[in-house]
Amino acid sequence: MIIQENVPMSEHTSFKVGGPARYFVKAESVSDIKEAIAFANEHALPNYILGKGTNLLVSDSGYNGVIIQLGKFFSEITNLGNGKIRARGATPLARLARYTINEGLAGIHKLAGIPGSLGGAIYMNAGAYGQDVSQTCVEVESIDSAGNLHTRAAADCKFGYRHSVFQELAKCEPKIPEPAEGGQSNFLSETILSATFQLTPATELGKTAKDLESEMQECMTKRRNSQPLSMPNAGSTFKRLDAGAAETPTLIAPGYYIEQAGLKGYCIGGAEVSRVHANFIVNADHATAADIKALSEHVQNAVAQKFGIQLKREIILLGKF
Length: 321
Ligand SMILES: Cc1cc2nc3c(=O)[nH]c(=O)nc-3n(C[C@H](O)[C@H](O)[C@H](O)COP(=O)(O)OP(=O)(O)OC[C@H]3O[C@@H](n4cnc5c(N)ncnc54)[C@H](O)[C@@H]3O)c2cc1C
What we know:
The chain is an alpha+beta fold. It folds into 2 domains: about 1-90 and about 115-195, Uridine Diphospho-n-acetylenolpyruvylglucosamine Reductase, domain 2 (2-Layer Sandwich); about 230-320, UDP-N-acetylenolpyruvoylglucosamine reductase, C-terminal domain (Uridine Diphospho-n-acetylenolpyruvylglucosamine Reductase, domain 1, Alpha-Beta Complex). Helix content is about 25%, strand content about 25%. It is built from 7 helices and 20 strands. The protein has a 5-stranded antiparallel beta sheet with strand order 6-7-14-11-12. A 4-stranded mixed beta sheet has the order 1-2-5-3, covered by helices on one side. The site of flavin-adenine dinucleotide (FAD) has 34 residues, from strand 3, helix 3, strand 9, strand 14 and strand 16.
């Protein structure tokens, strides 16, 4: 196991901000994960599991602990037959979605535009265009910080809108506090090692793999036309206002209120409320994490004042702010 020191988190997050992680480990086996946790505990430091950093805002002062990221070993997809697909935690969700399309399987093919890892997708119950991972996930394997392996049926994962049991276990929603210096790690409750999906053969839906590809491409086009993909960001800043993502009328999406509050294009430092999509904050010009956090709070306050609505952050904060 290689332990790096003072690794800039700006290189590991889609916002491209964040100070150094005191220690950074790329885990290439389950024993690496255990060793990294033991190393953190020996140094009385917290540890934190990083996916692809596409939903994270890391403090400018960095993270005084051990960041663990799953390496290549954990990027693997297995076709178990009869529509069952298992993928390991570091598998890019985009790769998994495209793989299932090639296999002619429907269920997660519309998620190809979500830039995170499978582990991050399970943790967040990521979703888009009427699909989320909970709809087809049947089982999740994980390891807790004491080294015990768990296999949970989806029904035990407490999936909800952008929610899973793994957030409850990590006690880090919506903001992750760093424990006092010397405090025991309470961050990495469970690392998601793999997830299994039960997908539907396209033929059973009267479709072909080509149809799934077209549906996926349609979603990608919608994304390109509605999201500020050329600027660093972390996806939606705020959660939708009710739990029924698929049924939520667009009028009550956070972006509507943010736009009506006149905040499109509003800047604090180098952070900007996207002019393309008001529910995105973009790193427009060398933003700091403090700029982005301050802007998200300004948006929350402005929307609360104008509409009496409390927006809840979807983006996760890590480190001291
Ligand atoms: C341009 C853009 C578009 C996006 N569009 C969407 C969208 O349409 N829908 C959507 O839902 N999200 C979207 N997102 C947000 C983000 O991509 C998702 O939330 C994604 O699932 C996060 O995955 P990640 O690997 O990047 O996780 P990270 O950001 O690295 O981590 C997120 C959380 O997951 C935890 N985590 C990560 N891996 C594991 C693991 N193996 N075990 C345990 N915990 C883990 C981390 O500890 C952290 O708490 C978008 C982001 C961007 C930048």
